[in-house]
Write a structure and sequence with these properties.
rRNA processing, ATP hydrolysis activity, two-stranded antiparallel ribbon, Adenylate kinase isoenzyme 6 homolog, ribosome biogenesis, single chain
Length: 183
């Protein structure tokens, strides 16, 4: 993590349907520093950072090298929220905070049904949530101090989570401002 950064790089991750994009959008609005929200799935589509589209799963097979090349200058500079259903791909040196959003599997099932996901995709994502797949990926890819697990089941959780991350950003800034003054 570069001491030259004035803003952190935050990853908001979790199973599809847990509220990543909603959290990231609200955080970008309420953060005490400018943070650019990047929906990685949208970026993959916009910049053709995929190998092919899988009709069965209704999803893109990401070209990880192209994606990392695209994100490197942005994420390493800081001031960004990366919003994606996985996180272990992102180099540890980019990441200051990983927020793993969690949701009760029955609520998640309903959310994915309203998106008209195919049944097998709903089942796979629901199982991944029950088995804590994204949380385990985060815990095995980053130091424990940067991984935070938060519930995301309603508006109260959303507001509380964003407030909590805003406070974290303020503390991060205070730590990094004093670090740069000491060097």
């Amino acid at each position: 993590m570069s001491s030259k950064r004035t803003s952190p790089t935050i990853v908001i991750t979790g199973t599809p349907g847990v509220g990543k994009s909603t959290h990231a959008q609200l955080l970008a609005q309420e953060a005490p520093v400018p943070l650019k929200h990047i929906n990685v799935g949208d970026l993959v589509k916009e910049k053709n950072l995929y190998e092919r589209y899988d009709e069965d799963w209704q999803s893109y097979e990401v070209d990880e090298d192209k994606l990392l090349d695209e994100l490197e200058p942005i994420a390493s500079a800081g001031g960004v929220i990366l919003d994606w259903h996985t996180c272990e791909l992102f180099p540890e040196r980019w990441v200051d905070l990983v927020v793993v959003l969690r949701c009760d599997h029955s609520k998640l099932w309903e959310r994915l049904e309203t998106r008209n996901y195919p049944l097998k995709k709903i089942q796979e994502n629901n199982e991944a949530e029950i088995m804590e797949v994204v949380l385990e990926e985060a815990r095995s890819s980053y130091v424990p101090e940067v991984v935070v697990e938060l519930r995301s089941e309603g508006t109260e959780d959303l507001e509380s989570n964003v407030s909590r991350v805003v406070e974290w950003i303020k503390a991060w800034q205070a730590d990094h401002t004093s670090d740069s003054e000491e060097s």
